[in-house]
Amino acid sequence: MSGRAGRGSPVGGESAGGGTRAGGKLLPYRLRLGLELLAYNLALLVLLPLMAAWLGWRLVVKRKPMGEWRHRLGLIPAMPASASPRIWVHAVSAGEMAAARPVIAELRRAFPGAGIALSTHTDTGMALARKTCEEADVIFYLPFDWPGTMGLALRRVRPELVVVLEKELWPNLLGMGRLMGAKVLAVNGRVSDRMVKRAWWLPGFVRWLYRLADCLCVQSARDARRLQELGVVDERGVIVAGNTKADTLAHRDEEAEARLTRELGVVDSEAWLVAGSTHAGEEEEVIEAFKEIRKEMPEARLLIAPRHLERVADVSAVLAQKGVEVVRRTEGRHDRPEAAVILDTMGELRAAYGFATVGFVGGTLVPIGGHNVLEPAAAGRPVLFGPHTENCADLAELLVEAGVGFQVAEAEGLAREFVGIARDGLLRKEIAERAGELMEQQRGASARCVEVVAKLLGREAVG
């Protein structure tokens, strides 16, 4: 194939490790990949004491659960024996699970008889998977990426295809899967600044990780260019497919928006700053910005949705310390205009963006890397975010170029942008139109990825 990366146009044709699967080169390919995995696992063995210490620290000090231990040890639920094709999808947490949902739905539509196994790494990912991914036949926590545990899990699933979301390139999952005959597809792929930096220190290892995939469906041309710079593109299939999260935002839940608007007592004369997915150290900036906003716009209201619900009490305390009255979503009707609302429920942030005057996406004023900046845009709202957008750089850049997103550096900038937008009704109308056009362009990534699946499996998709 050619050496060009493009939407719907695979690049490269060689397999991981540099050898092809064709004809007499199949054995050398398997032999080389096997030796590479052996070297990787010997390195893991050397690091085993450090990994054991990290697990102990996570469990005892941080008190973070590991999910179901039987899953972590490879004792996952078995797939239906008659299922065909057999597909293993992995999404690390809630954010990636949101991107996986439309892909899984599209896989089920295209292959009605498929067996779909879905794994995740976190409790939030598991909760979202069980709630929203009814198309999956089995759902489990990802086993430790050790040869014994991952090998046991692979034997129970026996996948013909392994699909991983974004940067979840686990060597034993992908490498052992390929040795067992599975194809590997990375979906919603992106090459972060952090990965590029790592490549400077371990260029060979990073290239090897990416080459474990038969094909990489990336979010943007920028990701494709970075793969080329890393020396991956010439040997892999790379397709610019777009962001599958846009497919989850295809339709607004107007009923949920109306219910939340009614129960919070929102009125048209108010200007709402909805700050979603915020983190520690970031709420302080948002609150300072809100206090500045209220000096110029007394009718302004604030809703904060912490990224992690266990921090609701902490955020309430911060608001109180800053002299802002606090109410929680679960406390009933909140029609006190002086009070800030804390969204202490799961799954209502998108509905909150529906009545926002401006949406702010968290994880960007502190060095977290940012969250789904498309969510406010999908509701037709202006999007504000800070400088730390490493995890969503392409989408942030896309929003800025479209005139829908605006980067701010601190509380002062956040307040200034909010007031400017809130007072300009014509600008808000123009932004809503631009946001609608942008979302329409981004949709369809899941269908494009499933077209690749059909080619990898050599099967014809239904419909």
Explained architecture:
With about 475 residues, the protein is of the alpha/beta class. It folds into 2 domains: about 25-250 and about 445-455, 3-Deoxy-D-manno-octulosonic-acid transferase, N-terminal domain (Rossmann fold, 3-Layer(aba) Sandwich); about 255-440, Glycogen Phosphorylase B (Rossmann fold), CATH 3.40.50.2000. About 45% of the residues lie in helices and about 15% in strands. It contains 19 helices and 14 strands. The protein has helices at about 25-60, 70, 95-110, 125-130, 145-155, 170-180, 195-200, 205-210, 220-230, 245-250, 255-265, 285-295, 310-320, 350-355, 375-380, 395-400, 410-420, 425-440, 445-455, and strands spanning about 85-90, 115-120, 140, 160-165, 185-190, 215-220, 235-240, 270-280, 300-305, 325-330, 340, 360, 385, 405. The chain has a 7-stranded parallel sheet, with helices on both faces. Strands 10-11-9-8-12-13-14 form a 7-stranded parallel sheet, sandwiched between helices. Mean pLDDT is about 90; it is low at about 1-5 and about 10-25.
